[in-house]
Structures are given as structure tokens and as C-alpha cells.
Amino acid sequence: MEKSTSPKQEKENQELGEASRSWEVKTAASPQYSEPASFEPLEAKQGLETGRQSRSSRSWSPQSGARTSLGGPAGPETSPAPLSPQESSSTPSPLAPAIQDLAAPLQSDRTSSVIPEAGTPYPDPLEQSSDKRESTPHHTSQLEGNTFQQSQQPKPHLCGPRAVSYNNANQKELRFDVFQEEDSNSDYDLHQPATGGSEVAPSMLETTIQNAKAYLLKTSSKSGLNLYDHLSNMLTKILDERPENAVDIIENISQDVKMAHFSKKFDALHNENEMLPTYEIAEKQKALFLQVHLEGVDQELEDEIVENALPNVMESAFYFEQAGVGLGTDETYRIFLALKQLTDTHPIQRCHFWGKILGLEMNYIVAEVEFREGEDEEEVEEEDVAEERDNGESEADEDEEDELPKSLYKVPQAIPKEESRTGANKYVYFVCNEPGRPWVKLPPVTPAQIVIARKIKKFFTGRLDAPIISYPPFPGNESNYLRAQIARISAGTHVSPLGFYQFGEEEGEEEEEVEGGRNSVEENPDFEGNQVTDLVETLSNWVHHVQHILSQGRCNWFNSIQKNEEEEEEEDEEKEEPDYIEQEVGPPLLTPISEDLEIQNIPAWTTRLSSNLIPQYAIAVLRSNLWPGAYAFSNGKKFENFYIGWGHKYSPDNYTPPVPTPVYQEYPSGPEITEMDDPGVEEEQAFRAAQEAVLLAAEENEETEEDEDEEDDYD
Amino acid sequence: MDAESLLLSLELASGSGQGLSPDRRASLLTSLMLVKRDYRYDRVLFWGRILGLVADYYIAQGLNEDQLAPRKTLYSLNCTEWSLLPPATEEMVAQSSVVKGRFMGDPSHEYEHIELQKVNEGEKVFEEEVVVQIKEETRLVYIIDQIDKAVAIIPRGALFKTPFGPTHVNRTFEGLSLSEAKKLSSYFHFREPVELKNKTLLEKADLDPSLDFMDSLEHDVPKGSWSIQMERGNALVVLRSLLWPGLTFYHAPRTKNYGYIYVGTGEKNMDLPFML
Question: From start to end residue, where is composition biased (Polar residues) (chain A) (predicted)?
Fold first, then answer.
């Protein structure tokens, strides 16, 4: 089927013969290719044999385009036909070599290169030519092949069997022609004439084709592919694999080609940055869910079940949800797991989910913890208790010089903080920002911190090391402030139903000299539970079970005068010595909350039944009005306390910052330094007269003495 | 929060701790449906809950076609029966602004406020103490109005304005992106703009007139009165107002879920400048 042997002559004849026909057909059938295009083929044909220059290739494209649309016979219109149908607007240069490649076999083979089109019956040579033609595109460029195939496939209406045969022939031919190309190349070189003619600018046709090709080359914004490449890849794959009935599975082939093409997402980098913290947290929280498998798992399990320090957070959360308070089920579960992690890593006797304190940037989840006996982790205290020594030291330096007025300011002795496990430091608190993050232990609270925390009102930022800038200056940073507020809230709002706790019998009240009351309670084993309605009706059924914090800042009174007695004897000046400081007394433990002070006629607590619709299963809910956010519930047998809020006390009046202390007096007022008016003239004269009178009297008395310069002169 | 997505919204807003108990939730779902039908609202929002000493008020708002039109407010004590509240008038505002303290929980409770009024009697002018009685309902209206004007917010792009005037819900709103969600400027006050006209021309040139027609949160006074946080590991952005503590706004970035709820005592935090 190779037409390599067809003589040039034959071709020319055929060209001429068919030129007219093709010409007619062209004009008839191709509206888009206007006059210049139609002319071109004729001229180009001439030029074809002579030389395939890039310029002519240009004309070929519209030619071929025209031809494809026509499908008409165009014998000598050789290579252009399959070259680039209307879809492809070829740039001259890439086509040129292609065309040149094409030209060689074409020249040798061709008789006609018209792509068959519907409608016009074609002579046999057409079939031949079509075969030839179809062969060429394949090895010229993929483009040609693509377009060619394209033009082939959408034309099944070609005279039925002929079409089929075309297609089949095409496919078979294509490969065959690959080999032909090499052979014909040499031929081409021989026939390389200079193409003088065809200066016609393709203009419209060419621009359209260029536009079409540019459109095909446009990169998709979603996947980074372009249609041009995709089609080329697809056709290459098809021609390589030669599947049966390719037309039926063409869509699947297209999909496969796309999937095989690995392309990175366009803006992958952007998304990465944003989602990173999300993934981090998710990883951390995933760690919570993984169980730690150690050796001897069974024993561990048993141990866990036996001494369970972990509270049943989910159960409490269920009850609080009845009251409308809660963090949401999955969040609570994560907190539950985080608490479990806490109890696993620290030797904890009892643990309790205290609550959540909201902050500006981050929130705090607080766990109240009691360590096992003897396993306390004591921190080294760096407090200098010897503050009152400062005054003494400065005295020694200035003895020899003129004595500067000594500061008589006595720094009030710092009240020592309470021991751990007693009073305000009874429990240790751990905080974390989010479940999954590590738990941080809060330092024990000092009375000074509590005293000042009562005077300031600041939002928490969420960072434990943030400084607290306030007046009076808070001794510590946010972790200390947080601890102080937690202590205050616990002391003010941790309540339990009457009878749940009772005083321990072993504690002796008379042992401690300063204690006014008992300071520890223990569970009452005989507790029988209260009626829920009782709990709601009156507040006297609830009692505080945490010690009240005195205004000193401690729960147990500390008498600072006792220590002072020894020092006072050493000091020379004793000013305003307090005789005794009244011992501060607070309400004793287990005081019913009905005794709580009201805030401007508002009771300190509000009680509710959780549900009015089903009272038999309702629980009693207590809400504090003094510390908004503090809740307590009881269902008769169980009870629990919870806090969720900003961590501040409620006051109906606005907060007024405390006034700075008055300026200290440097000198005591006395006659020595008090200014007095200078005496007036009359006064002076009167004074002088009086003095002279005295002088005379003295002279009379003591004539022997001749002191005349007794008196001073008052000016 | 939209009554349509009440359950999901409550779950998302639960970070602030205060929510609704199951029986309230259940009754809300049914009763809001009926409210929508009876009053013929387009959208019903569950506004929140004001905690009183004796009882709590549950507040809902109804919206019609125009999203920025004044909303109708309803209140209920048990989430089942709803009563319409009158719109706020100037007189109400002036009266109720003097009342302080907690809400009682009884709508007919009357606050007594003693005012000194100058009374002219003939030629004598003397001051008399007049006791003004203010009903709690009036105060409720006033507080809800204040809170709405001050801290009700909406993300940028959720509403759009048509040239004819009314604002509509934007059905193509896909949610803010993560980076946008962390900025205060992506949230607007859900009310008629007050400061928009004070912007310079340069700033106005950057605005999109169909989306940026409300005040943004950036210029709220005092600065820092909003706390912006990401919860659940960047899957939820929560804004809490520090001026009216109890107002929580939540939004899940890249989704359509957003809303705000107020659960609190209904008192403004006047100490805010000291606390920052």
C-alpha cells in the first residue's frame, strides 16, 4: 500500500486533476476558510513538491483544515490535509519540521490527501490517498495524529464500510508508516525545492487555528493539565496499547490517563500552613486515646479498678447537663482522658475536675488533686521571710555621718503561707490549656496573694507566665493569680448537702492555740441522702465544706505579733505599738449557706430543680450569685461542684481601684521645724522692752555682775 | 443561632459552659417551630437566656425577609409559651438605664427608682423625691436591645445587600477561611451601620458594597473587648464579648455554621477597662 513508487508525474496529474474538484468542494463546504485559504492549496500544492518551507506549512494548516472539513478529494493536497484541521492553530515553526517530515513520505506516496468527508463519494484513489494521508500524521507529530484521529472519529457517517475501513486502515497504516518515514526522508531531501510562492498571510484562518490551539493549551486552574497535552497523552496511549473497540472505552482511557498523571495541587503550600495546628492538636489528642500497654497489663488493670482516683467525669457531666451546664459530650470525654493521663503519671489519691476558667487567648482546664500521703512534691521556696531585716541593716551604715532621718516605716511582716495540705493549700491544682496538652502544676498560694487578689480584677490571658500589671502590684504572675482565684472560688462556693460531711472525731480542738474551729471534715459513712425537694426549698440544707479564707489571706489565723515581741525590745523607738491584733474569725466549717451574706438584697445562691416537667427524677441545682459560674448539684445521694466562667466575683457596684497609700511623713511636725511668722515691729519692740525690763531687774539684783551681752538680738 | 440548626449550634457553642438542659432543648425545638408558623417569620433565632434570681428568661427573635430590619423579640419562661415583647423606644431606654442589679425573673416585677425632680409650685421650686416604677419587662426589652446593638455579630459574607435595599442571606456563603476567621475585621455587627460613613474615602474604596455594608469589629471601643479563640484544634473559632460577658459567637471555618447566643445575667461589664 505504499505509494512510494508513485511517480511525481502521476502525482502532479492527480493534483491538477483534482485540484479543481477540491477547489470547488472546498469553496462549497468550508465557510470558515475563506478565499485566501482556498487559493492556498492550489498554490501550495505546487509548492509542496518543490519545497516544504515553514511558510508553506502555514498555508498547509488551513489547507488541511479546509480539507478536513470538506473531506473532499484533494489529491495533491498532501501533507497539509492531515496536518492540522481547524482545531489546531499551528505555529509555523513546530509544524515546519513536522511538515517536512511529512512531506517526504507524502511526496513519495501521495496521490491525494483528502480526508474523506461525508457526502461526497470518493473515488478509489481517495481511499488510497486517505490511507496515505492518514498514515503521515501519525509520525509527524502527535498533534497531527490527534487532530487526525479527531477528524476521523467524529465522522462515522463516512460511507459506511468505507469509514470503517478507513479507520482500520488508518490504525494499521499509522504504525507502518512510521517506518516509512525514515525511508522517505531521504527522498524528501532530494525534492527539496525552494518554495517561492505562497506568501499569502493566512490571517483569519490561521488566527482562528492559533486561537484554537492556544485554547487547547490553556492550563486548567484546578489540575494543572491542559487539553492539548491530555489529548496527546491519550492518543499515544491508545496507539501504544491498541485496545479493542477503543471508541467505546475512550472515556475510561481518558480518566486513566488523568489519574496516572501525578500533579501536585496548585496551592498545596498554602493549605499546609493553615492546617498544621489543627493536625498538631489532633495528634496530641489522638495520643490520649491510645492506651499505654506496659508489661503486666492485667495487674495494671486490677490496680486501676481497685484504687480509682479518677472521678467519674461523665456521670457528673450528665447531671450537670440536666442543669444546663456543661462543655459538650466529646469535649468532656477528652477532658476525662486527660485526667486519666494525669492520674497515671502522678501519685494521686483523689482527683476532681474542678472546672474551666475562660481567658482571653486560651482557657484553663483545672483539676483539683490530692496527692497520696507522703508523696508530696515539695517545691523549694525562695521567699525571703527576712524582709523586716532591711531596716536594721541600714542603720549601721550611717552612724558616723550626719544622721539622716531614719525611715520609720516598718515593713509589715509577711504572713507565712499555709503548709500544704492545710487551709488554702489543702489541694494541689493542675491546669492545662486544652486536653491533650501537658498538665502544669500551680504553685501554692500565699496569703499576700489572696489579699491582693481581692483588690484587683483582671482577665486571664491564658498564658501562665503572663505578668499581672495592676495596682496594688500583684506579687506574682498569672499562675499565682489563677491559683489565688481558684482558692477564693473554692472557699466561697464548694458546698455539699447537709450531713454528707461530718467532723472527724480524732482532731482535737484544743491543741492548736490559735484555731477557732475545726479545719477538716470527713465523709459521713451514715449519710442517707436528702430529699431533692428539701435541698431546693431551703438553703440551710447545704453547707460549706471548705474553710473560709480570712481577710488575712489564710484559713488559720496567724498571729504575727508573737514573733514581733522579741524584735521590739531591740528597737529604740516604739511608735504606735499595736497592743494586739484582733484575731480574725471566720464562719466555721460546715456552716449552712443560708448564712452567707446577701449582696444588696440578693441571696447568695439560687436554687432550682433541674426540670419542672418531671420532678420525680429531677436534681437540685445550686447557682451562686456571688461567683457567677459556680454550680453545684445533688440528686439526693451524690453531689458535685463545678465552676465555669471568667473567674471573677460579682459586684453590683462598679469596681473602684484602691487609692494609693498616702505619702509618708518625712518629719514629725514639731516646733523645731515648723515655720513661724517673723514677729512684727510692735512685737519686737514689746519684746525688747520686756527684756530690758528684765535686764534692769537683773542689774539691780546683781550689781556686781557686769554682763551686758546677755541677751541675743532679735532682728 | 438559627432554630433550624439548634442542636448543632448548641453543641458548638458549648465551650462557654452554659447551655441548655435536655428538656429545654426539646421544648425549644417544638415551640420555635410553632412560633415560626404562627407569626409567619422567615427565620427564627434562638437569642439566648437571661438568668434571673427566681426564673430564667428564654429569648427568641424572628426575622422576615429583610435581615437588617428591626427584629421581633419574644420571651418565654418555660420554652413553651412565647410572648411578644414591644420594640424598644427612647423613653424605655432612658428609664431603664438607671436600673442596676440582677433580673428577678418575674416579668411583672417592678423596680423602684428614686429620682429627684424639681417641682414648681407657684414660685417655690423644691425638689421632691419621686419614685419611678419600672417594670421588668421594660428592662428586659432595653437590655436585649442594648446587647443586640453592641455585640450581636455575623461573619463577613453571610449577608449581602441588593441595590433595591433589603439585605438577604447569602446562599453561596461557604464560610470564612482559617486565616480570615482569626481576624476581627471579618466580623460585622448585626445592625445598621453607625461608623461606616466615618471611614475615609480611601478605606471605602476597598470595600465591596454588597458585602461590606456593616460595621466591623475592628474599631470597637475599648480595644480588646473581644476575645478570639480557636477551639477543638482550629476547627471552631469562638468569639466572646468581654463587654457583655455571656455572649458567645461561634463559627466553624469553611462551613456555613455560625451563630451567637447570650447566656448571662444581662449586665454590662463596666469594669472592662480595669480588667484588660
Answer: 138-154
Nearest to A324 among B24, B101, B179 (CB): B24
Task: Tell me the average pLDDT across B84-99.
Answer: 86
A463 interface with B at CB cutoff 8 Å:
no
Q: What is the ipTM of this complex?
A: 0.89
Spatial contact of B103 and B136, defined as CB atoms under 8 Å apart: yes
Cell 502525482, located at residue:
A11
- Domain annotation covers residue A497: yes
β-strands B83-84, B159-161: how paired? unpaired
Which segment of A11-15, A401-405, A693-697, B72-76 scores lowest on mean pLDDT? A11-15
DSSP string covering A666-708 = SS---TTT---PPP-HHHHHHHHHHHHHHHHHHHHH-SS----
CA dist., res. A694 & res. A684, Å (int):
15
Distance from the Cα of A491 to chain B's closest Cα (Å) equals 21
Give every CB contact of residue B101 below 8 A, 6+ residues apart in sequence. Answer: A600, A602, A652, B267
User: In total, how many domains does chain A have?
Assistant: 1
Chain A CB contacts of B178 under 8 Å are: 274-275
Contacting A residues, span 357-376, partner chain B, CB-CB under 8 Å: 358-363
What string of H, E and C letters represents the secondary structure of A487-522?
HHHHHHHCEEECCCEEECCCCCCCCCCCCCCCCCEE
Best mutation target among A289, A455, A459, A489 (most B Cβ atoms within 10 Å) is A459
Using the CB atoms, write b or e for A48-69: b if 16+ within 10 Å.
bbbbbbbbbbbbbbbbbbbbbb
A15-41 burial, b if ≥16 CB within 10 A, otherwise e?
A: bebbbebbbebbbebbeebeebbbbbb
A327 to B242: CB separation less than 8 angstroms, yes or no = no
Mean of pLDDT values over A249-271: 69
Which residue is associated with the grid cell 541675743? A712
Q: Which residues of A touch B20 (CB under 8 A)?
A: 324
Q: What is the mean pLDDT of chain A?
A: 67
* DSSP label at residue A4: T
A433 touches chain B (CB under 8 A): no
Tell me the chain A residues in contact with residue B230 when contact means C-beta distances shorter than 8 Å.
Answer: 277
Q: Which residues constitute the domain of residue A644? A: 312-376+411-503+537-557+589-650
- What phi and psi values does residue B231 have, to the nearest 5 degrees? -115, 170
Q: CA A101, A104, A107, A108 torsion: positive or negative?
A: negative
Task: Note whether A326 contacts B: Cβ–Cβ < 8 A.
Answer: yes
Handedness of CA B177, B180, B186, B187 (dihedral sign): positive
Q: Is A472 on the interface with B (CB under 8 A)?
A: no
CA atoms within 13 A on the CB side of B226: 25
A657/chain B closest Cα distance in angstroms: 8
Spatial contact of A411 and A387, defined as CB atoms under 8 Å apart:
yes
Going by DSSP bridges, is the β-strand pair B258-264/A521-523 parallel, antiparallel, or unpaired? unpaired
Residue A183: how many other CB atoms lie within 10 Å: 13
In terms of pLDDT, which residue wins out, A144 or B114? B114
Task: Determine whether the interchain pair A358/B240 forms a contact, defined as Cβ–Cβ distance below 8 Å.
Answer: yes
CB contact under 8 A, A324 and B271: no
Q: Report the 10 Å Cβ neighbour count for A613.
A: 12
Which DSSP string corresponds to A52-88?
--HHHHHHHHHHHHHHHHH----TT--THHHH--TT-
pLDDT tens-digit profile of A350-387?
A: 888 999 999 998 999 999 988 877 655 554 444 433 33
Is A278 close to B234, i.e. CB distance below 8 A? yes
- Residue A576: inside a domain, yes or no? no
